[in-house]
Amino acid sequence: MTVPLLELRGISMIYRVGTQRIPALKAIDLEIGRGETLAVVGESGSGKTTLAKIILGLERPTAGSVRLDGQELTIRRSRETRRQIQVVQQNPLSALNPAKTVGSTITLPLAVHGYPREGRDRRIAELLDIVGLPPALALHYPNDLSGGQRQRVALARALASNPDLLVLDEPTSALDVSVQAKMLRLLRELQVKHRVAYCFITHDLAVARALAQRVVVLRGGSIVDKGEIGSVFTSSRNGYTRELLAAVPTIK
Amino acid sequence: MLEIRDLSVSFRGFEGKARVIENVSLEVRRGEKVALVGESGCGKSLTARVVFGLLEGGEVDIDGRVMLDETSLLPADQVVWSKIRGCRAAMIFQDPLAALNPVFTIADQMRAVTKNQPVGCIRDMLERVAIEDPDRVLAAYPFQLSGGMAQRVLIAMALINEPDLIVADEPATALDTRVQRQALDLLVEAITANGSSLLLISHDLGLVRQYTDRMYVMYAGNIVESGSTDQVLGGARHPYTQAMLAAVPQLDGALPKGIEGHLPDYHQPPPGCRFQPRCPHAAQECHVPVPLRLVDSGHEARCVFVGSSDVRSQRFHE
Predict the structure, then answer these.
(1) Could you give the ipTM of this predicted complex?
(2) How far is residue A47 from each of residues A59, A217, B291, measured CA to CA in Å?
(3) B148: nearest CA partner in chain A
(4) Exposed, middle or buried by CB within 10 Å (0-12, 13-18, 19+), for B297?
């Protein structure tokens, strides 16, 4: 069997608040293959964002291991590891520095990861083009942009270092449906073209279904259901999964 | 009960006049649940703000007629507003934690709304919106509540004076699907019990489908389609409504379709149909103003390709 791109084994996370111990994740096992999308679905408080932080190396899990390409990762990560795993957050307005132009926002990861100085402007134009934005936008500030454009800038920044894995934490839930639809199409297209893997965190099951091949359902910090997304969504026997599916509003 | 007729709103600014809302007419009858849908920036919330007089003064021109039963709300003075806001009509804002004052307890804020009703009434109201420990919530500051709890407090606040009309602007969109449904279930149940009316402002067609009887679709400050929720969602005739429907992700796994292009610049909106620059069916006829055309009884769409008769003259007849 080939080694998965990302592998989590027995990840647990306990937050200490005063004398209380609050378990946020309990013995999570999951893997994401190269170029694949894994959807992580669950409600607020199910541990989705804690899981994202552990994958990104922003939190040290209480127990368990994170492996990238078979190599165990610690909380102290090499520059190379950080290059390989990038993130797009839910709210692009708070994720982008309001005092920096789009261009200088995207320059930062290029500089950190040693992209030659003289090629940076061209690379920025290239990245903006990849996410469907005009190169002239490099001179604008986040405040001048629409919600959909801001999220594309955040995506361009994440792609700047040629990552193998993108952690997408509710990347479309702040967007209008028609803008969301375009964003989902863009993510699919980028994946096909660049073979980047997605850990797609969402509470919207229909959005997960549109983008992911596999799914894990989180509840209270545990994985209660997992598998190929089509079969989980059509024939899961898990009561909680079915309850979540029943709560998806239909328009027809 | 609420009647908006030929409402136009424009802003005078540095770049000239932005005609954001143009000739919007809509009505909400007693006991009816009506949706106003459209994408961000199309004028939905602005319309709600006009109803509550939150837009007067400054560099803004408002034209048209807004009536709540026999009371004209455009223009209206502070004496009228003090009898309307929170009493005969109440508004529920999108972000519950931003709508509550962070430095007062829930009890203080609810007392201010009810004008000295006994605490017992307030506690009963919180119980009605399924808050299990009303005493803890009353003593709490907003930051001590979860989003779902804060949303219920806002619903309780809007309901407590039994208003005739509740305007809910993207209620609970910040919440999880299940929590959002619980909140809306409670709201709609209470509205039905009181015999009041609801104007639900949303871009979520799933919620509109579930909770409303009739709907208006707004694009770039124009009503482009209206009718019963079944008629509009089941047989959308305006290309914009059709495009919105195609953008909603479904559980079948198909990638939803987006709408190409952007909302027009309100300083120079396209002549005729405002959707025409983005419309896949656009033709020469679309460059002149398009009236609402009758699709079916009660179902109208502002598109040259619909029906043939101009129904503008017979609007709102019963």
Answers:
(1) 0.81
(2) 13, 11, 51
(3) A44
(4) exposed
Do A43 and B258 make contact, defined as CB atoms within 8 angstroms? no
Chain B CB contacts of A251 below 8 Å: 205-206, 209, 233, 245, 248
- Dump pLDDT digits (tens) for B217-269: 999 999 999 999 999 999 999 999 999 999 999 888 889 998 888 888 888 88
Share of chain B above pLDDT 90, in %: 46
Nearest CA in chain B to A212: B253
Query: Which residues in chain A have their CB less than 8 angstroms from residue B241's CB?
Result: none
> A94-153, pLDDT tens digit by residue?
899 999 999 999 999 999 998 999 999 999 999 999 998 999 899 999 998 888 899 999
In chain A, which residues have pLDDT < 70? 1, 252
CB contact under 8 A, B249 and A247: no
Interface of B with A in 68-97 (CB under 8 A): none
Q: Which residues of B touch A184 (CB under 8 A)?
A: 249, 255-256
pTM for the model: 0.85
Contact flag B205-A245 (C-beta cutoff 8 Å):
no
Integer Cα distance of B295 and B301 in angstroms = 7
